[in-house]
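PROTOCOL LOG
Step 1. Enter all chains and additional molecules of the complex.
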Amino acid sequence: MINGIMVFAGKKLIRLAALLASVSIITFALVAMSPIDPVQSYIGADVMRVGAEQRQEIAAYWGLDRPFPERFIKWTSALLQGDMGTSMIYREPVTHVIAERFMHSALLMAFAWLLSGVIGFIAGVAAAMRKDSWLDRLIKSYCYTLASTPSFWIGLLLMMIFAVWLGWLPVGMGVPAGVLAENVTWADRLRHMVMPVLTLSVVGIAPIALHTRQKLIDVMDSDFILFAKARGERGLGLLLRHGLRNIALPAITLQFASFGELFGGAVLAEQVFSYPGLGQATVEAGLRGDVPLLMGLVLCSTLFVFTGNALADYFYRMVDPRLRYRKEERA
Amino acid sequence: MPLLEVNKLSISFVQYVKGSVQQRITVVDELDFAINEGEIVAVVGASGSGKSLLAHAIMGILPKNVETTGSILYGGELLDEKLLRRHRGREIALVPQSISFLDPLMRVGKQLHTRADGEVQDKERDSLFERFQLGKHVARLFPFQLSGGMARKVLVSTAALGRTRLIIADEPTPGMHPDDVAEALGRFKQLAEGGCAVLFITHDIEAALRIADKVAVFYAGEAIELAAADDFKGQGERLRHPYTKALWRALPQNGFEPITGTQPARSSDVQGCLFAARCSSYAEDCKTKRPESREVRGGMVRCLHAT
Ligand code: SF4
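Step 2. Run joint prediction.
Step 3. Record the structure below.
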């Protein structure tokens, strides 16, 4: 068992290293081809007051005048020593920016992940148990509608209803505007988080609910449910004893494998609500040619999504007894 | 009064052939039989002839799209969902066909113990395990870790308990070691001697004859003969239906004469006798006239020319 975990982790680590390397190269190459002039965006509104010489100096200061391959090598060797560089937009070490942003995003994504997982699972179970009833049709049409709805649109809709019309929730940002950082309470933070979390989870419910529904329908049609019924099991007891046992694992696996979509959704949701998380920082870094920050973020999000998939894989392999144990030596 | 009485039971379902064309498939057609307490009735028929659906129909666990007509009585009472809820897994027990009837994610021991079980049943099962030479560790295994023979024994041990009054065993023996087959059949026999009624569904006529009192032979969804086990003797002179005789003579010790041809698939547009194409006693009217079941020499037969 322990051995199995070590081998599993070893293989995953090698893959991760290869993945990170290729992602960095591709991102760097893409930035090299990007039409955005980082100096231009660095100067921003001061464009009239900055002369050609000063531009040269700025470029030289950030190393922007060097050819891309050289910059890549420099960045890589710094990274290997643990230095991710300094963000051009925030003028802060990239690690600081990411650490702070990550706190915001992680909280946001964790809430959305749990919420969509739990609600989606329950909705899927309910739909399957009442297959073809009005409840099932309602849940299915909700899922199909949302599966084809972009999350930013949901975000805008929520904003319109709760922030503009009803005025219950703040329009955006991570904390109230014009309040000193030390006066911001947890309640404030949570209130600002409600809409992005809702946006993210409303969309995240669909896949897990549909998957759970189908899986449970299949399981309830299977021979072993038939036999359990023949032995007097029925109703809720049957569902708990044999149904959930067989669908929980695939649901958990799917939920971990959805880290990618979760992150993608977060980028859009954070953008809509100007929520200061990783997603928003990624958009900023991309639009303004902040290469060190962008690279840091890309690596971080790759790591994040990879972790999700690896966990999904792990659960799939290690928790299912058919993969965990070898077939018994015959008696 | 028989413990289980099946009257004019038909089982059918609608199948889609080629897109939207519907076809009603009848797998069991107007079946009549009864089992008394202490009696073993074997239902013998080729694999895939709808015998499992018969077992599931009695247990009331057919899928929704399967339709039944006719009636099933248990102890003289209509065996409906209400009565089934009382008896399923207690007085009436199913021995299913294969290992896929065990929950793949649950250890065998935990799985065998149901809500209805008390200490008595657990003890009984332990001693059954011993008799079947299933080690104690088997309870800790997951179903996929069992060999075919072990799985059968586990399945038999779910039903062969003292409280059972009616066992419906659906192909319980294939894949078992001959000794274990003997053990399992012996266990059924023993339960029958204690007053339990056993419906033994199988394609193995030899295994059936080893324990059964009566044998119902299935052909294309119809019971074409119901004979006492004693009728299977010699060259099969006492058997009534040409198919039963052919089955009997196809056994190695009785001449090994193969039966040519295959069973026809059932659909609603059959005329005449279903066995006509393969029958050695075929006569002109067999093609047009459908044989009804009738009594011949104390047994039942569906053949126009049986005597
Ligand atoms: S009815 Fe005719 S064809 Fe059918 S079994 Fe009897 S003799 Fe054979």
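Step 4. Note key features.
The longest strand of chain B covers residues 21-35.
Residues B 242, 273, 275-276, 279, 281-283, 286, 291, 303-305 surround iron/sulfur cluster (CB under 6 Å).
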